[in-house]
């Protein structure tokens, strides 16, 4: 009987404030979509870092002819200098940091260059003599690039030490800032959702002051009186969370998995599995929103 009464009260409240309830659902949907998008974006950044940082190399460019660097004053790197560098790379100081190392001659660098830029008119003017020999080093931990750089930079025969991670740093910076922007927009929308839920509960409580007064007189507990209002807000917020999960699932399924993954198959992308991973989080956020709104409102507006 009590459950039936509570359900009937929830139905009455939702019908009386239908427009406000729909507004709560929509605002919660939009705000949690931003929260979910920010979470998925961070997951994507983590995937890219794990994949790309594991593949990047440290490139030790050897001195070419005509370099302006002090350590290249004697001209192109000599075989003796190359041998000294090989010994230094194999030394106990650097060996523990290095997973793999190979030497690329000017001829090999030219072949790679022609492979990547074949068909380009400007590439036809490049000759073998214009290329640089180099050591390609794959690190055990790419984060320890500075250790290798400090040891090799400035050595005779070394023009520069390049970390390929710099290529991706700008991309990750843009993605992280986009994630921060999404979180900021989500925070504004979540605040709007809290205010809307509070207003909806308040209007519902005011429209039923007579009923709540009678319930108070016959000895109903605070929880029994307030529970229908709390469930109204929780139901509206939960529906918004379900819509947000559905929207994110559709977006990832059709835009990422079905379309983007086919265009850029070499990039690890988030999938629908990640959407289901964050779904409980979004539902929990919705319930917390409803709980906060209820606590702020009910103690004041259900008093007789």
TrEMBL record:
Q: Where is the ABC3 transporter permease C-terminal domain?
A: 185-299
Keyword Transmembrane helix in record: yes
- Where does the record place it? Cell membrane
Q: Which GO terms describe its biological process?
A: cell division
Keyword Cell division on entry: yes
**One of the Pfam families matching this protein, by short name:** FtsX_ECD
* Annotated GO CC locations: plasma membrane
Please provide the record's keywords in A-Z order: Cell cycle, Cell division, Cell membrane, Membrane, Transmembrane, Transmembrane helix
Residue ranges of the TM segments: 21-41, 180-203, 223-250, 275-298
Which residues does the UniProt record annotate as the domain FtsX extracellular?
56-161
Major location (coarse): membrane
InterPro entries linked to this entry: ABC3_permease_C, FtsX, FtsX_actino, FtsX_ECD
Q: How does it sit in the membrane?
A: Multi-pass membrane protein
Give the record's family classification: Belongs to the ABC-4 integral membrane protein family. FtsX subfamily.
Q: Which PANTHER family match?
A: CELL DIVISION PROTEIN FTSX (PTHR47755:SF1)
Q: How does it assemble?
A: Forms a membrane-associated complex with FtsE.
**Function of the protein:** Part of the ABC transporter FtsEX involved in cellular division.
Give the protein's recorded name: Cell division protein FtsX
């Amino acid at each position: 009987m009590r459950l039936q009464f509570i359900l009937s009260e929830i139905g009455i409240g939702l019908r009386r404030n239908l427009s406000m309830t729909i507004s709560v659902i929509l605002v919660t949907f939009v705000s949690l979509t931003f929260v979910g998008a920010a979470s998925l974006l961070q997951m994507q950044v983590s995937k890219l870092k794990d994949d790309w940082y594991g593949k990047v190399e440290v490139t030790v460019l050897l001195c070419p002819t005509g370099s302006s660097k002090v350590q290249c004053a004697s001209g192109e790197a000599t075989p003796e200098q190359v041998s000294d560098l090989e010994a230094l790379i194999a030394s106990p100081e650097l060996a523990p940091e290095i997973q793999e190392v190979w030497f690329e001659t000017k001829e090999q660098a030219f072949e790679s260059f022609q492979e990547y830029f074949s068909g380009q008119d400007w590439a036809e003017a490049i000759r073998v003599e214009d290329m640089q020999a180099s050591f390609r080093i794959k690190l055990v931990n790419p984060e320890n690039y500075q250790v290798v750089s400090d040891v090799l930079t400035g050595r005779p025969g070394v023009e520069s030490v390049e970390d390929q991670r710099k290529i991706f740093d700008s991309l990750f910076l843009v993605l992280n800032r986009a994630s921060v922007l999404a979180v900021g927009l989500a925070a504004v929308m979540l605040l709007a959702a809290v205010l809307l839920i509070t207003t909806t509960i308040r209007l519902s409580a005011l429209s039923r002051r007579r009923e709540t007064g009678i319930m108070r007189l016959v000895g109903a507990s605070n929880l029994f009186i307030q529970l229908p209002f709390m469930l109204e807000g929780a139901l509206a917020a939960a529906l918004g969370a379900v819509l947000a999960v559905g929207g994110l699932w559709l977006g990832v399924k059709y835009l990422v998995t079905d379309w983007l993954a086919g265009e850029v198959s070499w990039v690890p992308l988030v999938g629908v599995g990640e959407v289901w991973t964050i779904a409980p989080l979004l539902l929990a956020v919705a319930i917390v929103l409803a709980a906060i709104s209820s606590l702020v409102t009910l103690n004041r507006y259900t008093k007789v």
